[in-house]
Amino acid sequence: xxxxxxxxxxxxxxxxxxxxxxxxxxxxxxxxxxxxxxxxxxxxxxxxxxxxxxxxxxxxxxxxxxxxxxxxxxxxxxxxxxxxxxxxxxxxxxxxxxxxxxxxxxxxxxxxxxxxxxxxxxxxxxxxxxxxxxxxxxxxxxxxxxxxxxxxxxxxxxxxxxxxxxxxxxxxxxxxxxxxxxxxxxxxxxxxxxxxxxxxxxxxxxxxxxxxxxxxxxxxxxxxxxxxxxxxxxxxxxxxxxxxxxxxxxxxxxxxxxxxxxxxxx
Length: 266
Known about the structure:
Blueprint: E1 6-9, E2 12-15, H1 17-44, E3 49-53, H2 56-73, E4 78-82, H3 86-94, E5 100-105, E6 113-127, H4 141-144, E7 148-152, H5 157-168, E8 174-179, H6 182-190, E9 196-199, E10 210-213, E11 219-227, H7 234-256, E12 264-265
Parallel strand pairs: 3-4, 3-5, 7-8
Antiparallel strand pairs: 1-2, 5-11, 6-9, 6-10, 6-11, 6-12
C-alpha cells in the first residue's frame, strides 16, 4: 500500500492511524463479499421468493390451498401472486417479469416457454337454473346458437376457444359484454341477463350456476409454465410439488366419490 500500517511496542504489533482507517474500509468490503456469497447461495438453492401469475378461472381451484396450506407449511417462502388472464400470464413469464405462471395454456403459444401439464379441463356452457337448456346433460355450440353471452375478455384462452368453436360452424358468438373479471361474468349469469363459457374448475358449487359440458369436448390444458433456459429454483420446485399433490388428491377424491362427470382429467 505504501503506507505505514503497523508499529511495534515490544512484542505487540499495533495498527497505526492509517492502518485503522484501511482496516475499517477493508472490513466493510469483506462483509459485503460475505453477504453477496450468502445471497448467491440463496438464489441458487433457497431463493424463497416466487413471483407468479394465476388466472381467475384456475385460481378458484388452487388459490385457497396455496394461501392456506402452502403458506402455513412453508412460511419462509414469499409469494407474490398476480391474478390475470392466461394469455397475459404467459406473456409476462416470457418477458421475465414473473418467475412462473399456473395457468391454462396452449403449447403452441410460444417456443420460449416450458409447459408442465397438471391436468386438462373442459370448457362448459354456464347458465342459470331455469334456463331452457339447464336440464341438458350436454349441449353443442350449434344448440346455443343466438344465445346472448358474456365472456372473459381476450386476455383469457377461453375467449379464443369460444370464438374458434363458433367459427367452425360458420357463426359468431352473440356477446353482449366482455369482462376481465370472473365475478362480473358470474353475476351477469346469476341475474339471468345472459349465459357464458368457462373452464369447468371456475364454477363452484355455491355459485348457484349450471355448468353443462359441451358436446364438442373443448378442453384447456392447465399447468405450470416457466421461461425456457431459466433456472428453476428450489422454492419454485417446492411449490410445483405442492400443486401436483393438490391435483392428485382432488383426482383421488373424485374417484372415491364416483364422480363420472368430473371436469378434470389428469
